[in-house]
Design brief:
heterotrimer; A mainly alpha (171); B mainly alpha (102); C mainly alpha (616); A: 171 residues; mainly alpha; Four Helix Bundle (Hemerythrin (Met), subunit A); 2 domains; 7 helices; 76% helix; B: 102 residues; Helix Hairpins; elongated
Chain lengths: 171, 102, 616
Amino acid sequence: MNIIFYLAAAVAIVATLLVVTRLNAVHALLYLIVSLLAVAVVFYTLGAPFVAALEVIIYAGAIMVLFVFVIMMLNLGPQATETERGWAEPELWFGPALLCGVLLGEVIYLILRMPTGTTLARVGTPEQVGVALYGPYLLGVELASLLLLAGLVGAYHLGRRAPHEEPGGGV
Amino acid sequence: MATVPVAHGLLLAGVLFALGLVALLGRRNVIFMLLAVEIMLNAAGVAFIAAGARWGRVDGQVMFLFILTMAAAEVSVGLALVLQFYNRTRTLDVDAATSMKG
Amino acid sequence: MFSLLWLAPTLPLAGFLILATVGARLPRRVNTALGVGSVGLAALVSLLLAAAWAAAPPGAYTQTLWTWLHVGTFAPGITFYLDPLALVMLLVVTGVGFLIHVYAAWYMQDDPSIRRFFAYMNLFVAMMVVLVLADNLPLLYLGWEGVGLCSYLLIGFWYREPGNVKAAMKAFLITRIGDTALIIGLFLLFAQLGTVQIQALLAAAPGLTPAAATWAAALLLGGAVGKSAQLPLQTWLPDAMAGPTPVSALIHAATMVTAGVYLIARMHGIFTQAPGVMTAVAVIGAVTMLMAACSALAQRDLKRVLAYSTMSQVGMMFMALGVGAWTAAIFHFMTHAFFKALLFLGAGVVIHALGGEQDVTKMGGLRKTLPGVYWALLIGALSLAGFPFVTAGFYSKDAILYLSWTAARGAPWLWALGWFTAFLTAVYAFRMIFLVFHGPAVQAHPVRDARVSVPLGILAVLSVIGGFVLLPRVLGGFAPFAAFLRPVLPEPPQRDGGIFEVVLLAASAVASLGGIGVAYLLFARRRTTSPDAGLARFWRQGWGFDALYDRLVVHPYLWLAQECRHDVVDAFYHGLADVCLMLNGWLSALQNGRVRWYAGALVAGAVLLLALLVWR
């Protein structure tokens, strides 16, 4: 089982690396789906099958479909890739890479320094998750529902097309 | 089920997070920046699941559910903003949106 | 009957409030009727009070409306105090005030801001009544400042002319110097005697140490000098003629400028404790009256002639106060209010008839066009000149001259100055009459209006008969005025006159008649015009006091202000502002609007925080 965890983790990292470097948005999106599926496998190996399913259904399914819709609505032609190539200057990448490298180094250092332990080979079943959600985390669930409602209203408001709006005006 | 050192799970999360962060800072395309945010949220989810697995508790999974909810809301609003942004500026370059500068 | 006392200040105040608030919605005629009527009712109340007093003199009547404020032993009340002195003042203020209001209804009839005019005038009368009826010094000070404020507002009434505003400002600022002295004196008296109630103060005055009495009297004198335009704070009065003529008549001749006289007479108990200050009062009065008479002689502006004349006459009252002749000073105040108001109102008609011309050298021959005004002004001038035996001015002035020699504090040189001033007064009074009404005629519009003729007529009658209430001993000694005031104002100790009184009386008559004769020779026969150079020019400019103060006070102050404009303190605050601007520049550069920069800053912060954990 451990080997599956490491394989999936490697796939997730490689796929994510490809996401970061792609110039075409649709390509990047497909690699991200691969990455998410790999992470779902990781979840499964870590004893969280319910979450793994959600990762596939909601993340790799619903949310990524949203991205696909938007990219389709924007109707970016082949020149979009060229624009993206023009933006991908090495010096633009240098600063963020350095910063993130330092951050990653610090994180790795801190993780390796902490007391070790292994994951338990125990499965957190959907039933347990549901009991926890509607038990101690009930307030969190309510807040999440409120957040989703706000997201719904916000997306509707921002997404509607106002025909008489001047470019650059307020929403 | 796998019994890996929890540090490895956390390292996976850290690497994914760093990659997302590089993309967020390095890309100028708004859509790529949103993708980068998704990667980072997902990385945080990995960290929760790994930590939950370390103690054999479901709280990590509950936290991931909340992250999932938040990501869904964030993406819907963010993509609506991208559409508005593109309608107004005819570009996806995030550096074009500087009218709020001091 | 005496309980009506509170109505005397309240009626004009109510007039002011109505005019100031709802007056804008009322027609002009109603506004005028309100403005005149409120003072008329106040005058009626004063007459009723006088009648009640004549029927049964109560000695003094006190009416407390409420306690103004109460701090420890300091508890001035809104309390009115009526005694013979206050009654005389009240009658003159409301009576002459009413006549001037009637006249003003004609004078201001075409002015667009007649409502504002009557509102200010009513407020003035209210404040003046408060001043004369005040039972304690804070209330007196309230009236004192109130009339000063109204004076300021009315001098600058036509505020679209920058000159008028400057004149108003000048009057306000210069009288302010005196007011400051007055309020310090008031505090000093409270600190020394522990009360502000005037009668209690007078009763306690003999307990003052000589130094305290001198300081208190000198500070009160400072206030009186400022308000009454005496040396050295006299320069504001001639410029105050920028106001409408009824204002000049009411405020700057009949009532407000004599407030200083009233103050000293009211506080005479303090002054008698300070002989040095008494002498100063007499000297200030004597010098002012002579200098102002010289200046009046050289003026070309009709109203300025009268302004300097007022200054001179008030100086004469001060001289009387200085020698302790309180009753004579108040007597002259009363007759002066009559004839000076008459002269100002007549002059207003003349100026109006000539379409705004104020230069006496450009007038002439008006006695045909304005016969009524001619007679009124002639009576006024005769009274001012002290024409013997028939005019009020003669008796009041003679009372002062006589006492300036024979009173214990009097001196021959004071009398000599007074006599010479009386002579000059006759000269300039009749210079005005001859230049305006005699000689070659100029074009003028005749004026016929009851609102002019009635006040002028009444004032003319008063200018004649007003003197027969205090006759000198040699003419029978009929003196109900002195008897009336005796409970309040003591007679000065004096040497026995005897035949000497007759000599002085004759000398007064000679001064008056001689002055008129000289004026006739100089101005009726030859129409001499004073040259615009030398002494005449010096006198016309009021002995150069304006230039002197300009050089001594205004220029150094302006220089100092100029220097202080860029001083160190400012540099500090400017520096502070510059630093803020610089920081603002830096911080707003941070807000460059680029999301990726913000995200980068967040990451840098995370790196730093984690670094703290790493190095811990």
